[in-house]
TrEMBL record:
InterPro entries tied to this protein: Ribosom_uL1_bac-type (IPR005878), Ribosomal_uL1 (IPR002143), Ribosomal_uL1-like (IPR023674), Ribosomal_uL1/biogenesis (IPR028364), Ribosomal_uL1_3-a/b-sand (IPR016095), Ribosomal_uL1_CS (IPR023673)
Species lineage: Bacteria, Bacillati, Bacillota, Clostridia, Eubacteriales
PANTHER family listed in its UniProt record: 54S RIBOSOMAL PROTEIN L1, MITOCHONDRIAL, LARGE RIBOSOMAL SUBUNIT PROTEIN UL1M
GO molecular function: rRNA binding; structural constituent of ribosome; tRNA binding
Protein name (Swiss-Prot/TrEMBL): Large ribosomal subunit protein uL1
Assigned protein family: Belongs to the universal ribosomal protein uL1 family.
Quaternary structure annotation from Swiss-Prot or TrEMBL: Part of the 50S ribosomal subunit.
Amino acid sequence: MGKNYIESAKLIDKNALYTPEEALELSVKTAKAKFDETIELHVRLGVDPRHADQQVRGAVVLPHGTGKTVKVLVFAKGDKEKEAQAAGADYVGAEDMIEKIQKENWFDFDVVVATPDMMGLVGRLGRVLGPKGLMPNPKSGTVTFDVARAIAEIKAGKVEYRVDKTAIIHVPIGKKSFGAEKLVTNFRSLMEAVIKAKPAAAKGQYVKSVSVSSTMGPGVKVNPTKVLE
């Protein structure tokens, strides 16, 4: 543990459950690194991700964005290719982009969008895009003919959330420089989306635990009953 981490940990009561406002103020206060640290939200859910009917996945546009410049790759042809270029996509193409990824191991992008007619081609990249969480998906709005809207939302701060094998969701909700107030707004937007996405098959307590932390700082527990208050 570094000196900054140890000093930061002293400010947090490990046994306390804080309100979102208190927790995010502490996260900002304990982010002592020299760079603008990312603030992350971690939510443990009462679901069994091994069952298809208990998957929790979706996307939400954070009101204040993520503070990160996102590079978007779009797989499209013809008019949709022109539309994507006009909408500000960083890279647009079809077979040429697939070849670049396969042959050059090129991954200079953060999000992939594809029109539905391109998914047969994009499927070839499943083995490399899937493990990186980059595979386009209709549930997250990245498989669509409305490429302009998809790009606009991603650039505005759209984040994808997905429960992992341990039933936890990890999502960035902004930067330390945002300040607690903006982070709380982003926090609530994300929690609202996660709660709305509760699967019908989930039994018992849905939101089991919630915490926030900065890139280099300690975790701060949030009271699960206070997340939307």
